[in-house]
Design goal:
Elements: E1 3-7, H1 12-23, E2 27-32, E3 47-51, H2 57-70, E4 76-79, H3 100-123, E5 129-133, H4 150-170, E6 176-181, H5 198-211, E7 221-223
Parallel strand pairs: 1-2, 1-4, 2-3, 4-5, 5-6, 6-7
Helix pairs in contact: 1-5, 2-3, 3-4
The chain binds NADP nicotinamide-adenine-dinucleotide phosphate.
């Protein structure tokens, strides 16, 4: 049975991805900063949940140690956790630069921290995959022309280069690394006016992971619908 780890599992996209993999018969280990409203669709004996703050070294290492005692390998590690704070919407004159540290610590360093602590388990898979859920906001050529959101855009650009470095480093271990823009989705972060249901994005992301699992030399950044997203 495949072991899937999803971080940010109570969120809009995370819960839909978890459901997709449970429907396929996988074992899903979900983490989030709090239990929140865990979707009833995840009530399944193959689902387990842990509270983990990806912005905290101690929380991540504690959870990673527990997981290492429980399972021998991770087939797919998906990073969905992220934040887009209200003050992200301010123009530069009103933007508190030091408040961006939390966004960086969560969106960019959070996935790296978790990947580092769980790498041993991903390496133990026959063909591990690490998926960083990124954003068009981190693309320098094709982002949404924001004149705000310095923190969020910069954190996702940092996540993109992290994904490239990781792919180069982990190719020798036959681990595929992907950075995926999930589309503008109807979630707590995306708002209800967004055009895409997270369940539709999740289905396409799952397909994309399967399709690109072994092409270690192919592109790293892509859209949920398998279109090229320029850097
Ligand atoms: N929605 C969109 O349109 C959109 C577009 C492009 C990219 N994305 C990216 O897609 C991913 C999923 O977003 P979503 O729309 O599903 O957002 P969401 O519903 O807000 O889910 C994000 C989840 O991450 C959790 N989280 C926040 N900080 C955390 C931490 N320090 N440790 C652990 N978990 C933490 C959140 O918990 P709380 O709710 O308690 O904060 C929430 O459950 C994010 O990386 C986002 O940047 C989203």
């Amino acid at each position: 049975m495949k072991n899937i780890v999803i971080v940010g599992v109570t969120g809009g996209l995370g819960s839909c991805l978890a459901k997709e993999y449970l429907d396929e018969g996988c074992q899903v280990f979900g983490f989030d900063i709090d239990e929140g409203d865990i979707c009833s669709c995840l009530q399944n004996e193959r689902f387990s949940f842990g509270v983990m703050d990806i912005a905290s070294d101690s929380s991540v290492s504690e959870n990673a140690e527990k997981l290492c005692r429980k399972i021998s390998h991770i087939d797919i590690l998906i990073h969905c956790a992220g934040i887009l704070p209200q003050n992200s919407e301010r123009q530069l004159e009103d933007f508190e630069v030091s408040e961006a540290l939390e966004v960086f610590n969560t969106n960019a360093l959070g996935p790296l921290r978790v990947t580092k602590m769980l790498l041993r388990l991903v390496k133990a898979s026959d063909a591990g995959v690490i998926v960083n859920i990124s954003s068009e906001a981190g693309s320098m050529q094709a982002h949404a022309d924001y004149i705000i959101r310095y923190d969020y855009c910069m954190s996702k650009a940092a996540l993109n280069i992290q994904s490239i470095i990781l792919q180069r480093y982990l190719e020798k271990d036959k681990i595929r690394v992907l950075a995926v823009h999930p589309g503008w989705m109807q979630t707590k972060m995306g708002g209800q006016e967004a055009p895409l249901k997270p369940s539709d994005s999740a289905k396409q992301i799952k397909r994309l992971i399967t399709r690109h699992q072994y092409d270690y030399h192919n592109r790293v950044l892509m859209d949920y619908n398998d279109k090229i997203r320029p850097w």
